[in-house]
């Protein structure tokens, strides 16, 4: 299989079903941002430690689901059968509930960060949100599988819950948001931030 086809050289690409659209179309932007998210998750998987093997399996499953989400986004209404289902959303919700129990209760916003893996998971959460915004924008002008948008909404919650659980597992204290927080001063020691 040849990797380059030259069919996109003039700024167009084909959707599932053969319809040609501009590469900057909302639909292409949505599944292109989904691809960026999937690549970031692949990087996170490559950085996981052995003790995080169950998380690795979950993230690879999410990568598979994101391919289904991307396929649905590349399928204009009436041109095929959607792949993302309510059950996929429910499975994600069960995972979120499980991870939520693995971190202390919070009554404030948490600053993204902590353990390197948790920091990467927070980055993934923000890319999910950007992907979701692209899907919402697309949905106001064209028909999309509603479960793709719902799945993405839950996926950001999933990454938040997992990031918190990872910080807890590695005994990394999260930094809570403080209104009008302290201004960083170079003379502050690391211990002063905990």
From TrEMBL:
Its EC number is 2.5.1.17. One of its GO terms (molecular function) is corrinoid adenosyltransferase activity. Coiled coil: none annotated. Keywords: ATP-binding, Cobalamin biosynthesis, Nucleotide-binding, Transferase. Pathway: Cofactor biosynthesis; adenosylcobalamin biosynthesis; adenosylcobalamin from cob(II)yrinate a,c-diamide: step 2/7. It holds the Pfam family Cob_adeno_trans. It catalyses: 2 cob(II)alamin + reduced [electron-transfer flavoprotein] + 2 ATP = 2 adenosylcob(III)alamin + 2 triphosphate + oxidized [electron-transfer flavoprotein] + 3 H(+); 2 cob(II)yrinate a,c diamide + reduced [electron-transfer flavoprotein] + 2 ATP = 2 adenosylcob(III)yrinate a,c-diamide + 2 triphosphate + oxidized [electron-transfer flavoprotein] + 3 H(+). One of its GO terms (biological process) is cobalamin biosynthetic process. It comes from the Bacteria. InterPro entries: CblAdoTrfase-like, CblAdoTrfase-like_sf, PduO-typ. Residues 3-165 form the Cobalamin adenosyltransferase-like domain. Belongs to the Cob(I)alamin adenosyltransferase family. PANTHER family: CORRINOID ADENOSYLTRANSFERASE (PTHR12213), CORRINOID ADENOSYLTRANSFERASE MMAB (PTHR12213:SF0). Homotrimer. This is Corrinoid adenosyltransferase.
């Amino acid at each position: 299989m040849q990797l380059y086809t030259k069919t996109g050289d003039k700024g167009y690409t084909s959707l599932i079903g053969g319809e040609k659209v501009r590469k900057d179309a909302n639909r292409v932007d949505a599944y292109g941002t989904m691809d960026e998210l999937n690549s970031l998750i692949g990087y996170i998987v490559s950085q996981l430690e052995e003790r995080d093997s169950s998380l690795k399996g979950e993230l690879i499953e999410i990568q598979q689901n994101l391919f289904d989400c991307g396929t649905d986004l590349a399928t204009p209404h009436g041109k095929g059968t959607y792949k993302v289902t309510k059950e996929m959303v429910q499975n994600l919700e069960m995972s979120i509930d499980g991870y939520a129990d693995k971190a202390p209760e919070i009554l404030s916003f948490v600053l993204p960060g902590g353990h390197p893996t948790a920091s990467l998971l927070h980055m993934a959460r923000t890319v999910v949100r950007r992907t979701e915004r692209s899907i919402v924008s697309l949905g106001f002008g064209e028909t999309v599988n509603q479960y793709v948008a719902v799945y993405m909404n839950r996926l950001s919650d999933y990454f938040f819950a997992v990031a918190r659980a990872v910080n807890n597992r590695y005994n990394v204290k999260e930094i809570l948001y403080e209104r009008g927080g302290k201004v960083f001063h170079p003379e502050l020691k690391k211990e002063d931030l905990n």
